[in-house]
Specification:
Length: 327
Amino acid sequence: MAYPIQRLRRLRENEPLRRMVRETALTPNDFIYPAFVIEGQGRREPIASMPGQARLSIDLLVKEALEVRDLGIPAMILFGIPAKKDERGSSGFDPDGIVQRALRTLKKEVSGLVLITDVCIDEYTSHGHCGIVREGRILNDETLDCLKAMAKTHAQAGADMVAPSDMMDGRVAAIRGELDRAGCVDIPIMAYTAKFASCFYAPFRDAAGSSPQFGDRQSYQMDPANKREALREIDLDVEEGADIIMVKPAMPYLDVISAARERTPLPIAAYQVSGEYSMIKAAAQAGWLDENRAMLESLLSIKRAGADIILTYFAKEAARLLQSRPV
Ligand code: PBG
């Protein structure tokens, strides 16, 4: 039975009708807002390649967190930018490191917001890699010790959830074991499960000063060509005890999000990364795209593909728009 009996335009006739049959809805509950924390007092350093985003000192981060919470966004993910870097990324697992101190302050001053931390040493290493380096190679098992220490100090400082983004094999199980031994059995792990070696992280690396000083991340992050391998990563992270799995970046990998949705009943997060954000910002600034519509359409596509949670630099702007005009 086709045309003229079937006319799909019947249900597109007007706005209330379209709303009635709309399959996907965005709400501020879907978002996690990423934030960069730096040393100092009253410091706000705008990030040139990410218009609207800034590195904040802890006191200003508190204000930001209150704003995020009051917009109805349930969670924030913290990235630390330390004053000192070394070969092992030691400032990343110092109990008095920048993220650990930010957590203690946020915990005291902000309630009703889930505090997630990115667990990875690249922001803290002098070479910018996500693992311990020896003779130009990134060592897997040696790196796990750093990640364990980092996750534990984050949890002990007040993190409500940890999110390993390093892509070392076995890190979810290693972190789970470490958290459990430290008595943090109720701290969930959101694993960056299918994290691809993508060019779309460039503005973030500019923001965090974490570009690798030699080589690239292709020996640990995934090949953008591989979807079946993403399914293997999912199976392993689920087995190792991940509570939420993530696909990253988001929009160039909607097929992977959709495949992940089929593969596991776990909540699925997708990271709309810095490059995805900056592309929309840049096109809008040039007058080539309507920024608000591009923002909401991109977020909607990620949700429609199967993501339950979206990490996005647009979280605050999108939440504000959704309050006045639900999509
Ligand atoms: C690693 C990390 C990166 C991002 C999140 N965690 C950078 C990388 O893997 O090079 C990128 C996020 C973004 O581009 O918005 N700590």
